[in-house]
Each structure stands twice: as C-alpha cells, then as structure tokens.
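Protocol step 4 of 6.
Sequence for 5-formyltetrahydrofolate cyclo-ligase (Ligilactobacillus acidipiscis) entered exactly as in the expression construct, tag removed. Do not edit the line below.
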Amino acid sequence: MFSKEYMRKQQLNKLTSQAGRWEKTASELQIYQKLLSSAVWQDANVIAITLSEPLEFDTKPLIVAALHSKKTIVVPRTLSGHRLQFCRLDAATQIVRSNFGVLEPVESSVVVEPARIDLAVVPGLAFTSKGERLGFGGGFYDRFLAEYHGAVISCAEPARFYLGTKWQVDANDQAIANIVTTSGWFSLKQGRG
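Step 5 output, structure tokens:
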C-alpha cells in the first residue's frame, strides 16, 4: 500500500505522459457514450462538473452536451476552509484562475445550493473499482461529498483506474458511488447514485 503523496506523484507522471495522446481521447470518447446514455445523466437537470485541466478527464464535451440538452451546469469555486461553492455556468459567467491554479467562476457568480444539484461529476487522479478516489490533496471534494445527497459519478480512463486499492484510504475519504470506465460501469451496492 502506497502513501497518497507517492501515488499522487506517480499518477501525475503517468497522466502527464498520456496528455494529448490519442489513446486518452479514444478512452474519453467511450466513456462519454456510456455516461451520456445513462439514466442518471439523462434524468439530471442540474449537473456539477469541473472546468478540466489538460491532465484531468476532459469535461468540455460533457458541458457542451449538457447545455445543448438545456441542463443547468454548475462549476466549483474554492472557499476558505477547503470548501466548495457551486456557481451557474453560462456564456456570461466570468472565469478566472484561482490561487490553486484551477479555473473557477468569479465571486459575483450566481450560486446554486448543493440541494439543487442532481448529479456531481467528481474529478480525481485515480479511482478503484471499490469507489476509492485519490484526489489532488486539498480535501475539497471529500468535504462536499460528506454532506451531498445527490447522484455521484467519476469518469476514469485506463490510466486513472485500478481494480484494487493502491494507496492509503483515510476515514474521511468519501467513496464514489459510480465510476464510468472504458471496461464498464462500477457502482457501489451501498451509497449514493
């Protein structure tokens, strides 16, 4: 079992080597098809999703598909105390790069309360078939998920997915109820989703 810090470094190296390669794009295309045809996606009216960076699963096609289907997209903004606030994303939303180096809406954006979010698409560096998630180290999503009661999904291309646990899992780590991969859909028997 590896430490989270070690696994983060390993995953960042692995994902950097895969960025921009066709294999990553081809895997993402397969995952988009599975997610977009699912009932959990089709039934969701308000979807929380990140504005992805190059090393992350590319969320832009999901955002476009959601907006085309007249769904409401909300994206996270980081707050003090390692908390997230979700704001509506549309053509008028102003986006800036945060102190953490991620794209997020400005402070004056329209806030959407978590109770209104039907589906949260959660990012991560790695996932397991048991729903374990290796995040980026801030605990933002673990705090959010501890209080969120809607459907939860993560998308994991092969470089991001493990059948078994490879890193330490802490008591405050929140499991992901549904993980969509190129090889199938992994859902927890117990939990959200």
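Step 6, annotate. Residues 4-18 form the longest helix (15 residues).
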